[in-house]
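Record minuted for everyone:
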Amino acid sequence: MSVDPLAALIRSLAKPGIHLGYRFVAEGDEQSLTPAEAEPFLHADVTVRRRSGAARIVARALLERFHCPGATIAKAASGAPIWPAGIVGSLAHDHSVAVAAVARAADVSCLGIDIEAAEPLPDELVDLVSTPAERVRYGRTLLQDRRLFVAKEAVYKAVHPVDGIFLDFGDVEVDFERREARTSYGRRVVLDIAIASHVVALAYMCSRHSSIE
C-alpha cells in the first residue's frame, strides 16, 4: 500500500492540540465558498477562488473536531481568516495543495502555517528574504531551498492577527536549530519545518497554561 508523502509530512508537524490537514486543489473547490467567504474574491481569477475554497474545505473538516460544523471562515480587512470564537488558525496554499491549522485559543495564542513546492528560490529573492545574520549562519544551499521563505510567511500569519504589525522578511530572524523565530519588536514563536515534495512551516506560541510543546 503506497504512502502519501504529503500526508506523512503534515503528520510530522502535528502537535497535541494543534490539528493540521491538507487537500489537493480540485476543480469545483471554488463552489465551497460561502457568500461571506466569496465576497473578497468576486473579481479574482477562478484559480484563486478554487485554492481559497480548498483551504476552507480543509479548515471546516478540522473545525468539526472543535464542534464548529459548517463554520464560515471570512476574511478580515487585514486579509487574515476570521475564526469561530475560542479558535485560532491559519490557511495556506500553493498552486496545487491547500493546508490549514487550527487550535483552541486556550492552548495556542497564535498560529500560522505556510506551504510551497520544494523548488529553489529565485536568486534575486535570496538576499531579500534573508537577513545579514542568516546569510552568515546558513549556507547558500539552505537559503535557496525555500524553507526560510516559508518559515517567515508562517511567522507573519501567526503574529500579525495578534500584534497588527506589518513585517518585511528582514523583520523576522529565524533560528532553525532552536526551532524559533523572533520579530524585530521582540515577539518569539516556536517554528517547525518539514520538507519533502513541499516545504511546510508551522509557527505558533502557546498560551500560558498550555501543555503543548
Observations:
- Residues 23 and 98 are 5 Å apart (CA to CA).
- The chain has a mean pLDDT of 93.
